[in-house]
Design a protein that fits this description.
By secondary structure, this protein is mainly alpha-helical. It has five helices and four strands; from the N terminus they run αααββββαα. It has one domain: Cytochrome Bc1 Complex, Chain D, domain 2. A two-stranded antiparallel ribbon has the order 1-4. The chain has a two-stranded antiparallel ribbon with strand order 2-3. The longest helix is centred in the N-terminal third of the chain and has 37 residues. The chain binds heme C (HEC).
Length: 136
């Protein structure tokens, strides 16, 4: 009886760990799909950017850090503010307004895992940031 109890709690522990890991994996897969759909045509699937047109995300301080500013950048777009490795980028990154906070969170965490310091953000902090974006 005691053994059965131990065994059952062990199995449920495994289940819980398994479930939470599969959640993380889903968020990663979702982030990758969204990145490839909304960002990769400019920044490329491997994040390397495109010549002097689109900056490499592999060298971006927005990606390699705590991701502050990324959500507003995605929502509002950005132009003429990026200089990486001596190259000043003058093209416009257009605002991508239709991405939801959860979509932005998954994209941010995907690029942080791929090319950043894996300093993940949360849906709550993305929501907070979006509430306070400078008006454009
Ligand atoms: C139409 C092309 C285009 C698309 C689509 C695009 N970007 Fe950009 N992105 C740019 C350009 C151009 C810049 C440089 C803007 C500037 O100089 O201010 C930039 C800048 C950035 C930067 C800042 C780089 C730095 O360190 O200065 C990040 C991070 C970024 N983009 C992430 C994304 C993500 C994530 C997506 C998808 C949700 C995305 N971009 C979609 C063109 C694009």
């Amino acid at each position: 009886m005691r053994f059965t109890l131990y065994f059952l709690s062990f199995v449920s522990l495994l289940l819980i760990v398994g479930l939470s890991q599969s959640c993380e994996r889903d968020a990663y897969i979702e982030g990758r799909a969204l990145y490839n759909e909304y960002c990769a045509n400019c920044h490329q699937e491997d994040g390397s950017g495109l010549a002097a047109l689109y900056p490499p995300l592999t060298k971006s301080t927005f990606v390699d850090g705590d991701l502050t500013g990324l959500a507003c950048m995605i929502k509002n777009g950005r132009q003429g503010q990026s200089t990486i490795d001596g190259i000043r980028y003058t093209q416009q990154m257009p605002p991508i307004e239709k991405l939801t906070p959860i979509a932005i969170t998954n994209i941010a965490n995907y690029i942080s895992k791929e090319w950043g310091s894996e300093h993940y953000t949360t849906l709550q902090s993305v929501r907070d940031e979006l509430d306070g974006c400078p008006n454009q």
